[in-house]
Specification:
- It comes from marine sediment metagenome.
- Keywords: Membrane, Transmembrane, Transmembrane helix.
- This protein is mainly α.
- The protein has one domain (about 1-140).
- The chain has helices spanning about 1-10, 15-30, 45-55, 70-85, 90-100, 115-140, 145-150.
- The termini are far apart.
Length: about 150
């Protein structure tokens, strides 16, 4: 019932920010070019919405009504990739995605607004995942021994 309330509440968007993103999606679909001048920093979800528009046939103005059908899978996939790297066990990663997706502990409350919170959360997760992958490149697998620690003492 909690998830169905998320899907039913997603059809309404408030403010002028969603209209900007809808106009960017319409611009991409009409001109077949990325408007890098207007919104250079975050074109990923706009492109994803355009692809969703082409394959589903839903107009750009109606994409907020169905945005949860693609923001939840994208967010869950990124969270799974991140949790898989953190826990190293598939079962813990799946349980973490379950907690983040289907309980009140997670991001289901963030997805009521069309772009502001949903886009920020997905981008934040992706940036955190990239930084975590970068950090793992610097971590050594072998712990130091006593000789390495007390070499110059």
């Amino acid at each position: 019932m909690f998830i169905s309330s998320d899907f039913l509440g997603s059809g309404y968007f408030i403010g002028i920010d969603p209209w900007l993103h809808i106009s960017i999606i319409r611009s991409i679909t009409e001109t077949y070019q990325l408007p890098a001048v207007e919104y250079f920093g975050a074109m990923g979800l706009h492109i994803f919405s355009v692809v969703f528009h082409y394959f589903s046939g839903i107009s750009a103005i109606n994409i907020p009504r169905v945005s949860l059908f693609y923001t939840f899978p994208v967010s869950s996939l990124i969270a799974y990739c991140l949790l898989k790297r953190v826990f190293k066990y598939k079962n813990f990663a799946i349980f973490g995605v379950y907690l983040l997706t289907f309980t009140s502990l997670g991001f289901s409350q963030l997805m009521h607004q069309y772009w502001p919170s949903g886009l920020t959360y997905i981008q934040g997760l992706m940036i955190f995942l990239l930084l975590f992958i970068r950090l793992q490149a610097f971590i050594k697998e072998r712990p130091p021994n006593r000789e390495d620690i007390f070499v110059d003492i």
